[in-house]
Each structure stands twice: as structure tokens, then as C-alpha cells.
């Protein structure tokens, strides 16, 4: 079996292919390069992405554009209040001819799974994703099936305050590497959208620009990015600070620290670097930690237990006040 270093592609090839993916997605998503790059960062870091925003701003379009830009198996799950866990994982059906139970895999068995409006399903159904998102496997009726690799869940959800939504449990939110928001397009992008989408959707013409083999090699390249002791200590210090902060009643988990460093490696590779800088940690702290932290009741005075804006301010304060340990950042 080849090591990550043996399977990794040259940095120049990685940089070229990543730009092709971004350009491909931007034929569908106008004027949102930072959002597109964040989505690609999560995919290459082997994480799961949560896209949260109001209806109609292109959350599902971004997920579908990213999925169509990569030549992988893709399944979509439309989350509704009556969706059952077996509708996601699959079910065992009795075969009367063979006189035995056969497992019929559900839509979770794909490289990229798009979960549309995930917070419209009940918490019981949402929990069906927990094992697959953390361990890359599904257990049904005592039998465990391994999921395809790479495996990524790209879920969309409406804000917590919207009608007909269930808040994601803490354990579910913690399994998403990052949460991003689309935001409204600017005037020029919205005008361009009106002109280009009168007769057809650009998503229909989108073709894969990266094969599954190339994607696996890109992921191996991200894994091989160097992280110094100083940067690792910096990431740990930020996570530790969230657990001590007086404005937070739930800080970052150890899983959050691991995913922060993994995403920083992907961001470094996308910038054409073979090593992680503290700036990578700074840039990713809010999208990677914000959805995991819960403020105190005093901070969340508006009734929203997640208080997105307040949590972002707290993270920014923690990052600004955390010193970077002295030591070499790049490889020796």
C-alpha cells in the first residue's frame, strides 16, 4: 500500500486542478470566490460541510456544483419531517427466493452526499448520519458496511429561527468540519444571473474537471503538508481558550482541534504552500469553530442558543489574544 507521500501529486498539479475546480463552480455561483474556496477546502481536508443561510441564495446550487465538478458518485437526500433513518442508511429486505435478508443500501452510500435542508428532519433522523460522518461506515441490523472513500456530506440548512426547522444536536454539529453562509449576491452578480439564466441553468452544462483518482491524489497532497510544532501548539491554545472563556458554556472539542489543523493544511496547499502558517489557523477559526460553540445565556440574550454573530466576535477576540509560540513554521 502506498503512503500518502507516494500517492500525492506535485504541488503545481494540485494548484492547477484546484483552480479548475474553483473556476468550474464559479460558472454557476457568481461573485462568491471565498465561499467556493472554503467549500473546496473542506472537501480536500476530508471533512463535512454545513451551508447555512436563508432560502433562495444558492446553498443547494453550491453543493450540486461542487459535486458535479468532481467525477465521483453523488446522491442527494431531501430531508423532510417524515424522513426515517432507514431512508438514509438503507434497510434489510427479506428475499423470498434466497430465503435470507438482503441489505439494500441507502443514499448515504456515495462519495458525495448532498443533504438538502437537513434541519427539517427530526433529531432521530439527523442522528442516522452520526456514525457515517465520523467513522465512514453504516451499521444496520448488527451488520456494518464500509462507505466509499473519499466520503463527504454537504448539508444545507435554513437558520434556526426559520419556521419548520429543528436545531441540529451538538454531536451532529461537531461532525461538520465547517459552517459557511452564502450571503446575498452583490448587484452586478445578481444582474449577471438574470441575463445568463433566462433560458437554461449553467448547472446542466457543468462537467467534471477532476477524476476520482485525481481527487484522491489531491487529498494525499493535503495530508503531506507540513505542520510545525509551533502551529500545532497555536491551534491547541485557541481550542483550550474557548473552554475557559467566561462567555462560552461549550467550548471546542478535541475533534474541532484536529479538523482545524487538517483544514489549515488544505488551505496552505490551495495557496501553493507545503507548510501551514498561523495565518491559516486565524482565517479558519470562525468557520470551523463557530457552529460548535455555545455562548452563555447572558451573551445569547436574543433567544437564539447559538448566537452566530456573538460567537464569531468571541472567537475573533480569542484568536487576537492568543500568542503564536516561538519556533520555526516551515520544514527544516
Task: Explain the overall architecture.
It is built from 14 helices and 13 strands. 43% of the residues lie in helices and 16% in strands. The chain is globular, with a radius of gyration of 20 Å. With 332 residues, the chain is α/β, with parallel strands linked by helices. It has helices spanning 4-7, 11-26, 33-44, 59-68, 86-89, 123-126, 130-135, 170-175, 187-196, 212-223, 229-244, 254-270, 278-289, 308-321, and strands at 49-52, 70-71, 74-78, 90-95, 100-105, 112-116, 137-140, 143-146, 152-157, 178-180, 210-211, 248-250, 294-295.
What's the quick description here?
This protein has helices spanning 4-7, 11-26, 33-44, 59-68, 86-89, 123-126, 130-135, 170-175, 187-196, 212-223, 229-244, 254-270, 278-289, 308-321, and strands at 49-52, 70-71, 74-78, 90-95, 100-105, 112-116, 137-140, 143-146, 152-157, 178-180, 210-211, 248-250, 294-295. With 332 residues, the protein is of the alpha/beta class.
- CATH architecture term of the largest domain: 3-Layer(aba) Sandwich
Strand content: 15-25%
| Mean model confidence by pLDDT | 87
Instruction: State the major sheet.
Output: 5 strands, parallel
Which spans of ≥5 residues are poorly predicted at pLDDT below 50? none
**Whole-number radius of gyration?**
20 Å
Task: Count structural domains.
Answer: 2
The CATH superfamily of the largest domain is P-loop containing nucleotide triphosphate hydrolases
Structural class: alpha/beta
How many helices? The count is: 14
Strand order of the largest sheet: 3-6-9-1-10
